[in-house]
Amino acid sequence: MKIIAAIFMLMDHIGMLFYPTQPLWRALGRLAMPLFAYGVASGFWHTSSLKNYIKRMTVFAIISQLPFLWMFQVAYGRAFGLNIGFTFLIALGCLWLLKSAEQQSEIVKIGNYIMVGLLLILAEGLACDYGMYGVAVVILFYEYSFKKENQLVAYILFGLLTLIDSLIYNSPLQIYAVLSIVFIILLKNKRLSSLRYFFYLFYPLHMFVLVLIKLLFF
To answer: What is the rounded CA–CA span in Å between residue 178 and residue 184?
Structure first.
């Protein structure tokens, strides 16, 4: 799933830098984030050390920020926002709050839910890549995707969430993200430990290489 997601992400960024007038590249690119979001939810579900998982995500987010800003500067003439690593880092914080609330009193649960809401707002306020929507997708997949009886609910809610996001931000291409459900269904049980750090390396490196190609040859 990580390899498929990386291919879609690569197509998205190729379209951004080299073919901005051809929407097919960006449409296919919409499939990448939900696949990676599912991977983050799965990672939280299976991790034996949340502390180490958060550390890796933090280092990844920091390292990726300069290539991320550089790519947007070259593509749009302005750099803004935080990369998807920060989005997923906030999502991990939300998942920790939700999980820790399970065994707490009602008052503590309410407090945790309020903090989750504040983190969703923070993701939007900091202009994290995909913002509140990106964080919500990770939460949704975590809450519903890992119990067989809830999986259909997860896919329906994801479709509705994607539709709402595309309407709010007037981004019709975002609706193509629902096609990622096909790959999640087909690949959700395929886990390759050798690819554990694949996304951490591929994400910043591919942005750096694409921008270099753009500057040197176009």
So the answer is: 10
